[in-house]
Amino acid sequence: MRLSQFFLPLLKENPSEAQIVSHRLMLRAGMIKQQAAGIYSWLPLGLRALDNVERIVAEELDEAGCVRVLMPTLQPTELWKESGRYDALGKEMLRFKDRAERELLYSPTNEEMIIDIFRSYVKSYKSLPLNLYQINWKFRDEVRPRFGVMRGREFLMKDGYSFHVDLDDAKREYFKMYDVYHKIFNRLGLTSIAVSADSGAIGGSLSHEFQVLAETGESQIYYDPRFDDVRSGKKKASGEEMRSWYAAADELHVTDKCPVPKDQLREARGIEVGHIFLLGRKYTDAMNIDVTGPAGALVRVEMATFGIGVSRLVGAIIEASHDDNGIIWPDAVAPFKVGLINLRVGDRKCDDACTLIYDTLCAKQVDTLYDDTDERPGGKFASMDLIGAPWQITVGPKGVERDVVEMKHRKTGEKQELSVESALAKILG
Ligand code: ATP
Ligand code: MG
Prior knowledge:
CATH architecture of the largest domain: 2-Layer Sandwich
Distance between the termini: 21 Å
CATH topology of the largest domain: BirA Bifunctional Protein, domain 2
Strand content: 25-35%
CATH superfamily of the largest domain: Bira Bifunctional Protein, Domain 2
Structural class: alpha+beta
Bound molecules: adenosine-5'-triphosphate, magnesium ion
Radius of gyration: 24 Å
């Protein structure tokens, strides 16, 4: 992408409404624009990051055998009356009427609708287990939307639902997804701690929240010190091992009953990026969902449900990876992997070197933002640092005379003079 053709509305000033660094950087880097409290437009740079997060989540789920669907955001209210949640969700659920005075709601979560799909088609245990998911917008009329996309009212969620013939199989899937979630967050450059949690309005008997540690996180968590060794990479641990270590959300933590001695217990703030629930029969009992079992008689279906905050993750990644100059994207989610800076647009040698680099990277499908504008160098460097491309290549008149360009690694700040060929080789691997 040539910057001269792109739409990148950077802000020079720190927006006063932003209380946390990820919100501030997302506004300054022209990633999002607020349209109403907790409701955002995703501008081109932000959308690229959001799409990358969504793609990685979908890839890992597909590999784990989950099957993607897409349900409507607008739903009739009947299903919710059937499950008994129509009244339970209260003002958080946005309700309205269409022109025929039929009641509709904007989906805050989709247990009822996925069950409606399930019961229309699945009649036998032979079709189970089945794990369906979607990635779609949700609306919850949060009392206090804040911190940008971290707590929005409209937000993008991955919501998954699995169906099983017995509780043991639902548990097997639950623990499998526990491992898949760690893998997903690792690919996004995050290390998460799964804490035992309250199952709240979704319900069920067992639940874990996946928390990314950050001072600005809204959750208070308590955990075994061994998690810190896993987070720092000092120790590797399987999901099974980690589940045997103490980790609890605030509402479940009881000081007297905690197995970790007080002087070793870790206490931290976390951003909840995912939440899984073993539902059992909570919804299938309310909605009478059976399949024929192996012996021919009807058996009640058991369920589990799995959420990931896709739009919240973009904020969480920035919260975990930035410096005073801006965002430091992990490679996997970077909206652009390479930022290419032409210090003297119009100089034939600079232009030629840039065109060669740009065309080569584009041909290899490496997302590159080419700054071909005539802004002054200081501004170009500051903008590139702000938007956080993992690699920056700078082409200037002095360098091209000696056939070198400058290559900078955003994360370490390390700079190197390299020939065009070596710079390209370094990126293309
Ligand atoms: P929270 O405790 O943060 O309000 P929740 O427990 O109500 O979240 P879930 O129903 O578990 O949320 O939703 C699944 C995931 O969706 C959460 O783990 C979180 O990452 C994300 N999420 C929930 N609410 C919001 C929101 N208002 N804005 C952005 N993401 C959200
Ligand atoms: Mg939750």
